[in-house]
Amino acid sequence: MELCGGTKARITIISVGSDNDDCGYRYERAFRDAGARRISAVNFESRADCNAESHDAALTSADGILMVGHDAAMLSETLSATPIARQIAHRNAQGMHVAGAGAGAAFLPRQMIVGGQGGTTPRADIVQLAPGLGLIDQLVIDQHFRHQDRLGRMLMALAYSPRAIGIGIDEDTAGFIGVDQKLQVVGSGGITVIDTSQLQHSAIHPDRSHTPVSMIGLHLDILVAGSVYDMSAHMASINTSPSV
Amino acid sequence: MELCGGTKARITIISVGSDNDDCGYRYERAFRDAGARRISAVNFESRADCNAESHDAALTSADGILMVGHDAAMLSETLSATPIARQIAHRNAQGMHVAGAGAGAAFLPRQMIVGGQGGTTPRADIVQLAPGLGLIDQLVIDQHFRHQDRLGRMLMALAYSPRAIGIGIDEDTAGFIGVDQKLQVVGSGGITVIDTSQLQHSAIHPDRSHTPVSMIGLHLDILVAGSVYDMSAHMASINTSPSV
């Protein structure tokens, strides 16, 4: 809200799924409680819905968009590569802020994790990937990283995405990525960064999907509030001067 | 068994706890089923028990010892720094093989994880450490790494142990560490190696125990059967010629 202009910012909250899922409306109330005066929530029930021009105004005039959702697969199935998705990406390239919460965060990059099993060791069958919104390349985001055993599925997603960076976000924690490709950490938890840019070896056996996959040369950083990860330089640093 | 001389090897299985826990005896049966002819199991119920000379013979004459147990804290409380523990370490320095299964593996290095909470992000209160057998320095071993969410507690144990290497072992998987300090992986799962030798930053706030701890500059390798980790050179490699 601050980045988008404060309480007068026009913020559109986007959710997918049935009307029974009031996810978007709960976020709308939270923004109003925080003082936002020009806030709207749009729910897309189907891909056909994502062509509707009636929603265009809410997107065209928005200062910021927040993607929300519990169901990563449904976000991808409903929104990816639709006119609405293209418009969001186009406006983001022009400078409009786009945020994601929960599965909505995972949806922001070019590809996303939509499902998988728990476990630390990467195995070919441990993760399912799907197209995301495409705002960022070479990045995989997973959420609720602290409470769930999601390292293996993240590593496997990265094995499929050469030179990508994986970001696991704890609850009550956020990362702000600027146009300078720097990620700033905010909140009470941590962000786990796994960098594959110096991966020396990774072997996937497509016909032996439950075989563990060796990955040699990963870099791992645990970042807390005040830390910055430069995604271009592949370098983490402790930055005590907040400049979001 | 092969390393110790085959079916004629004298192998002593060591467990701790009450007589009701037949953990050691189940391993004894497994070795007999595999053809071992000179196998014995010794259970220590208390630290006082670990001074008993009656057990000395089983240790002095053994070609190999296997430490077993479910309860890491009980292993440390019962055995660490006892005459029995010192004798095992002394004989291992002379060349006797020592193995560990389950918590028995975690018990082999100088310090061990005896408890902790699940989670990916290291926090000061996430792990409890206790003295181990002391056969290896600068190494922390955790087991059942695949099925449980143990990255955070391993990272926190490493934050307390500068320049240490952390090894997380999947089920149905083993690591063989030779006198050359090379770790060889055997089994159907993976071994997660976390190397802190190039850690650039780690901040522990002792008075804010639930605050996440930032750790920058960790190296992460996932090794599968055939891989080798050189603990002196801090380097992993794919070695397809087994030479255990």
Secondary structure elements and their pairing?
2 copies of one chain form a homodimer.
Chain A: E1 10-16, H1 23-33, E2 38-44, H2 56-60, E3 64-67, H3 72-79, H4 83-93, E4 97-100, H5 103-106, E5 111-116, E6 127-131, E7 139-143, H6 151-159, E8 165-169, E9 173-177, E10 182-187, E11 190-195, E12 201-202, E13 215-224, E14 227-230, E15 235-238
Parallel strand pairs in A: 1-2, 1-3, 3-4, 7-8
Antiparallel strand pairs in A: 5-6, 8-11, 9-10, 10-14, 11-13, 12-13, 14-15
| Helical content class of chain A | 10-25%
Largest interface: A-B, 41 and 41 residues
> Into which percentage range does the β-strand content of chain A fall?
25-35%
Beginning-to-end CA distance, first to last residue of chain A = 12 Å
Oligomer: homodimer
**Describe the biggest sheet of chain A?**
5 strands, mixed
Sequence stretches where pLDDT stays below 50 over 5 or more residues of chain A: none
* Residue-averaged pLDDT of chain A: 87
The string of secondary-structure elements of chain A, in order, is EHEHEHHEHEEEHEEEEEEEE
Principal-axes shape call of chain A: globular
Roughly how many Å is the radius of gyration of chain A? 18 Å
Task: Summarize this structure as a short list of keywords or feature phrases.
five-stranded mixed β-sheet, homodimer, 244 residues, alpha/beta, four-stranded parallel β-sheet
What does this structure look like?
Two copies of one chain form a homodimer. Chain A has helices at residues 23-33, 56-60, 72-79, 83-93, 103-106, 151-159, and strands at 10-16, 38-44, 64-67, 97-100, 111-116, 127-131, 139-143, 165-169, 173-177, 182-187, 190-195, 201-202, 215-224, 227-230, 235-238. By secondary structure, chain A is an alpha/beta fold. In chain A, the strands form four sheets. Chain A has a five-stranded mixed sheet. Chain A has a four-stranded parallel sheet with strand order 2-1-3-4, with helices on both faces. Chain A is globular and about 50 Å long. The first copy, chain A, starts with 9 loop residues before the first strand and ends in a 6-residue tail after the last strand. In chain A, 45% of the residues are buried. Chains A and B meet through helix 6, strand 11, strand 13 and strand 15 of A and helix 6, strand 11, strand 13 and strand 15 of B.
